Amino acid sequence: MSNEYVLRVKCPDRYGIVAKISSSLNKANLFILDSAHYGDPENKTFFMRAKLIYSKKVLKIDAFSKFFEKECKSLKMDWSIKPADYQPNTAIFVSKYGHCLQDLMYRVDSGILPMNVSCIISNHMDHKKIADWHEIPFFYVPVTKENKSQAEKKIRNIIKDLDIDLMILARYMQILSNKMCKDFYGKIINIHHSFLPSFKGAKPYHQAYAKGVKILGATAHYVSSQLDEGPIIDQSVERVDHAKTPRDLELIGRDLESITLARAVKYHIERRIFINNSKTVIFN
Amino acid sequence: MSNEYVLRVKCPDRYGIVAKISSSLNKANLFILDSAHYGDPENKTFFMRAKLIYSKKVLKIDAFSKFFEKECKSLKMDWSIKPADYQPNTAIFVSKYGHCLQDLMYRVDSGILPMNVSCIISNHMDHKKIADWHEIPFFYVPVTKENKSQAEKKIRNIIKDLDIDLMILARYMQILSNKMCKDFYGKIINIHHSFLPSFKGAKPYHQAYAKGVKILGATAHYVSSQLDEGPIIDQSVERVDHAKTPRDLELIGRDLESITLARAVKYHIERRIFINNSKTVIFN
Amino acid sequence: MSNEYVLRVKCPDRYGIVAKISSSLNKANLFILDSAHYGDPENKTFFMRAKLIYSKKVLKIDAFSKFFEKECKSLKMDWSIKPADYQPNTAIFVSKYGHCLQDLMYRVDSGILPMNVSCIISNHMDHKKIADWHEIPFFYVPVTKENKSQAEKKIRNIIKDLDIDLMILARYMQILSNKMCKDFYGKIINIHHSFLPSFKGAKPYHQAYAKGVKILGATAHYVSSQLDEGPIIDQSVERVDHAKTPRDLELIGRDLESITLARAVKYHIERRIFINNSKTVIFN
Amino acid sequence: MSNEYVLRVKCPDRYGIVAKISSSLNKANLFILDSAHYGDPENKTFFMRAKLIYSKKVLKIDAFSKFFEKECKSLKMDWSIKPADYQPNTAIFVSKYGHCLQDLMYRVDSGILPMNVSCIISNHMDHKKIADWHEIPFFYVPVTKENKSQAEKKIRNIIKDLDIDLMILARYMQILSNKMCKDFYGKIINIHHSFLPSFKGAKPYHQAYAKGVKILGATAHYVSSQLDEGPIIDQSVERVDHAKTPRDLELIGRDLESITLARAVKYHIERRIFINNSKTVIFN
What we know:
Four copies of one chain form a homotetramer. The first copy, chain A, is of the alpha/beta class and 284 residues long. The first copy, chain A, has helices at 17-27, 61-71, 99-109, 128-134, 148-161, 178-183, 204-211, 246-269; strands spanning 4-12, 30-40, 45-54, 78-83, 89-94, 116-122, 138-140, 166-169, 188-192, 215-222, 232-239, 273-276, 279-282. Chain A has a seven-stranded mixed sheet with strand order 7-6-5-8-9-10-11. The first copy, chain A, has a four-stranded antiparallel sheet with strand order 2-3-1-4. In chain A, 41% of the residues are buried. The A-B interface holds A 38, 41, 195-199, 210-215, 217, 231-237, 241-243, 245, 276, 278-282, 284 and B 38, 41, 195-199, 210-215, 217, 231-237, 241-243, 245, 276, 278-282, 284.
């Protein structure tokens, strides 16, 4: 069992926070191995992520929490601590395009993305065999205009039953309800196949083709109730030229999508991302 | 004197164009050194750029033109030929930010951008000394709400008097009239300091900051009467993170702007760009 | 059945080649849809790739070949023509790292890489299940110091029996004999996990780490008898910093390797690559 | 006058360093605005850079130094503190190629590179007029085989007289003596026009052309007595293809060189770089 932890802190910015936190940690025999912080000059908010090592045998999280709360009360922190090797329970959502799913699963299997894939949820049967191959539960939840709210209810039940921490929309072509977006804000990552804020909505590669852009992009972001408007986590780009057809752009885009989504998921499960209003702070 | 020429052809697409053109050229003792072509599958338009060498002493352009027109009449070509070392007369427009101007002038001086800078036009006096240093005429044309049309008239006179072929808006912060945009369509290159179509209009770096993008961009495009909507020539990007202030983004953006504009101008003066409706075809 | 073909020509450079070839093709009712050519100024060699369409019913390749040979005899061409949808028989070689294999197979399955994967050959059993899943013959050919030449003989037999056109070394950790490299020169693509010519040989990520490079790379190249020295096909890079461990570099490198190898293979099977002494000419 | 400081610390790694340093600073009314640290797992060395703000009127550096030394004695620190707006006295060395010099001077003038350019030193007269334009002393120090040691003596005198902190070799085509490299180790930045460790020595663009690389690079590094072997600060790359001549590569390379050198210099003057044996640690 590892003795390393990841601490996350968000609080109003002021002088002396680092000193206060680090000396409090020291008193608890927790030492900073690696840390990063950022004070947003606009909204005066302080963000910190630290990787800690406990120098004694076993850290009692509850006792430490009480102590740390008390010590740093004046900072008015919103904070959390988890073992560094903590793996979130994840549900991967997919529709007909399987490249992001395949890519994520390969990374999970080879230890690059340390997460527990609890299930794959899809509105199509196409990728059941991938789920079977990886021995992961597959839930077929077809979505139509008529059954939309029932389908979402079914999804909510799965999320609850399997104690899901993170939902990854790996080219899932259904729009979640506003309520769902709000209830799980910060826990749903989507890959949008364009360089947002350009080309929101449907068929972004066709939009990019029509516009004649010379660089193609993909954007991973947290899902908010505004379509394709949630806080951006990561973006990638690739140079293209006039001779590329919409089909070419789509193929180039697939690599961008897979890599960008995988990177965003990695940041999330390593707990490197803070949502800062409509933006993200990422310590990488 | 060089015996090399650049031929440009645009015509309705059909079978056998390359054969027809290349054999016609051969008959005229003009041989293809380098060529590129593209048939747009959507609008069935064919584009070709060829670098030619004349195997005899001196090419009589007029005689060749008559011959070539007649030979290829069936192709219904829109075409032109110019010596490969042809240098357009250029006017560079600038306001307060001088980085693009400086960068262009350095490239001109060191032979990277083979063009004849006929004048620098500005609504401010700030960069007169750069013009003086390079011994280039400087025209101070202040623009106010009231004198806008007179100022443009002044500019039109300069363009006419100096026989200007190409206008480069090197961070020129004035919007040209629709009429001007139309009259000189395809002859005015602008650098927009964002990754279009994102962040049109004013203060794109502030827009990018507010949106929290993870990649910053710049776009060089031909000016059309729609603000920041003309055909895109080139784009560049650079990765940024949450800690970058609007000022940081601006500084990073400057390099993107200089390089992107220089590249677009190079393509233009090497006659590599065709406008294809709202897009560009670039043979590079 | 498609009526499109890819023509490849390599010949001594001189004036009028494009005209000669294109008019000869026209006579045979073959028309250029797309073409690219390059004359190397150093060794005076001309390279051309053209996508052609046959305007009649069925092209008789043999008859055309005789005609074309005769027509263009003076050009002293080394040439070939194949249907545009021709798919090479491919053998993928792999050792313990499966990411490139996985990535290639995904692209094959989803139609991005149009090739016929005839078999997977490995000196380990690890990836047999991937072969099984894709219903592709798997050949386990263990290699030791003692059996090296026998193992290669076995491989040669497989190559012959399955009529293999292309061998892809997808992180295959065995060095082929000089004889094998020569006999199949231009038919074996390797992915080297560094930015060649830096860091040849073993453990390039450890070499890169030791050197403290700020950019990591991967290189796909044709295999020659000089280790990691064959003609470069494609390279990719990614920015890294001091905090990356050799393990981090390896993980970042995996994505570079997969994408670079896939791109090189795509160029090859689309017949876009010419070997030009120690370099490649690629029409993409 | 600003009340901000940059603190740099290097010391043997152990638990509790951040807590010790930050609480010691707090006692001295210095608060961390921004900080970064890194512990090299190989050589157990800890590096830290912190931007501090002094909450009282005027910081007495000497008194603080004594206090801080005593407080943190157990850490065995190698450390320094300077005002955040400290500008090093810089000598820019140049030969015939002026693009890096021009680029640096533009950035200095426009406030992007906050440094005091004390002089320009060259073995040619070509760029004296740039020095004159910027009103900076220009020293013409021709170098021949015969006068090499005298020339270096002259340079040393200038460095001493003008109290130079930083020497920038902006395409300076002379090799400094081993003794000079050692005496000023960590104070001389060179731009090498290739992606090191590839293509050391002379004519790297010709080497890259001969090798047929698909990506071109530039490397900024500290000068050591081993030619082109000093710790790498920054690298940049750009994609190229077979059609690029050595001259094309050179032109593309110029932009890479200018930008890479400017970025390295910026890191240095913001005191973000630590030399860590043969590598660099950069907090950016």
